[in-house]
Amino acid sequence: MVGVKRAGSEEVLEFKLTRNTIRLPSVVGDRRKPDHAWDFMLDEQRKIGYMRLSQIGKQSADEMQTALEELEERGMKALILDLRNNPGGLLDGAVTISDLFVESGRILTVKGRNGETIYDAKPDGTFTNFPIALLVNRKTASAAEIVAACLQDHRRAVVVGERTFGQGIVRSLFKLKTGVGAMKLPVAAFYRPNGKSMNRFPNSKDSDDWGVSPDADCEVLLTEEEFKQYEKYHSERAALTSEAAARSDFHDRQLEKALEYVKAQLENK
What's the maximum distance between 2 C-alpha atoms anywhere in the chain? Predict the structure, then answer.
């Protein structure tokens, strides 16, 4: 029980709280419906879908599949997949999400001291026959980079935005012999379908090939001020109501470029 005393009143209100697990969705849309559920259709007239993957957890692949099935039922003809500010998450989740869009071929190779593990796409359950623009930025990292690299290498999506963070290594926790504390050490590295490493090593230069870079003519760099406005704007859109976001004058140039691409693809069909 929790007692609450409000200003201007001597009455103590008692509320019974029930402990429970609250699952926050990792796949969200651009805006909410009247019932507060996410609406994944960005442009109803052109049938352009939009999904933002905030992180890659245990439920992310199932959430994305459900959203894709809903969009297909509504006649989706193109999709914008937003991985901006996605810090990554589970390796298996990234592989499963990539497999939703790629029918065959290599998704990822993980190389470590004990050999390598190969992940290949399966044809079952693949969503095809629509163009994809995939948004990334400087905070797209780790497992999210796996998805971006896979879809780019298979030419399943065009990558729009900024070069990603460049975190292409697997870290594991090792307990210290004293029994107190642990160390997280790199044990393996990710390699994208084209065979290249995505990791940005400490001595890497900007001219080196790391991370996932936007496709030709799809780079849209944000200034530091724009990036701060972007983060504020999307935190407002993630709220239960989007009134603050609706009032915002933030101009999302990266999303605009992604829309420009998918609209051109639809017009050329």
Answer: 69
